[in-house]
Amino acid sequence: MDPLSPAFLPVRVFGPGCHYFTFRTRRGRPGLAVPPVCAEFQAALHLLGLEGVSRVRTAVVLAAELHLVAAVPESRAADQVGLVLQGKLAPSLARLGLAWAPEFSHRPLPSGADGYPTFRYLYRAPYRAGLAAEGEAWAGYHCAERDWRWFGPLTRGSGGGLGPLEAAVAA
């Protein structure tokens, strides 16, 4: 099925409670974009869903920042979700001599808005930042399986690197 077809539109749009989060390291110190942090980041995102804290739709780890889009349940405040994620990753950062900046930002995304521009922005971020070469999978990128069904086909041949799920299928 064509990911641009109207049948995909319901999953491409942001539903109620979707927020865009940005986390930064204290004083903007780089060091997040290393394999141990990327691996723990993927595990932490999985746990957020299993624990019912939030469903992360897409996310990326950069040198000194973490960006993500998450569906926040009505029973939780977005601030709580951010604090839980920071807490899950704090030990990994501490082992590298890093810490989170005390504040993080989040903003609600308009319900019904097309998610493609935001997904594409996060997907391309490591390539724009020079953290990965074009065509190279970035271990610090995450896309929920349901979202990858519509977004993944749109990344092929578009000048971006392969996402982890796309690379696994190609292997």
Largest sheet: 5 strands, antiparallel
Number of helices: 6
| CATH classification, class level | Alpha Beta
Helix/strand order, N-terminal first: HEHEEHEHEHH
Total DSSP E strands: 5
Task: Say what the CATH topology is.
Answer: Alpha-Beta Plaits
Q: Which second-level CATH architecture applies?
A: 2-Layer Sandwich
Rg calc: 16 Å
Work out the helicity level: 40-55%
Strand content: 15-25%
Summing up helix and strand content along with how strands pair, one would put the structural category as: alpha+beta
- Arrangement of strands in the largest sheet: 4-1-3-2-5
Unreliable residue stretches: 1-6, 157-171
- Termini separation comes to 23 Å
By CATH, the superfamily comes out as Transposase IS200-like
Q: Looking at the structure, what is the overall shape? A: globular
Mean pLDDT: 85
**Total count of domains:** 1
